[in-house]
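Rather than argue in generalities, we have chosen a single entry, letters for residues, whole numbers for local backbone shapes, without further comment.
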Amino acid sequence: MALTLPSASPSEVVTFFHSLTGQEAYILALALQGWRSNEIGNKLSIVKCTVDTHRRNIMTKWHIAYVTIHTGKRAAREMMAIIRPYAATYLPPV
């Protein structure tokens, strides 16, 4: 199921959350709070490259391709704006 920006139905958002692994959900929860990849890596005792891989996997599950850095950042901001209201219900506490 491909999610469309800038809107997504509640069922699409729920499906997205259920597709995440535990590690991806935790990284997304931290990212929603403004944590950077290197900070997340330090907290989870993993390297930044691994965090970035999880972030790419999250974006792939959201069906967003990184065409350019700017487009990727814009897409990520839009995605976060859509899922933020659901985060407390579907993401682990940090």
Summary: Residues 10-90 form a domain with the Arc Repressor Mutant, subunit A fold (CATH 1.10.10.10). The CA atoms of residues 2 and 57 lie 14 Å apart.
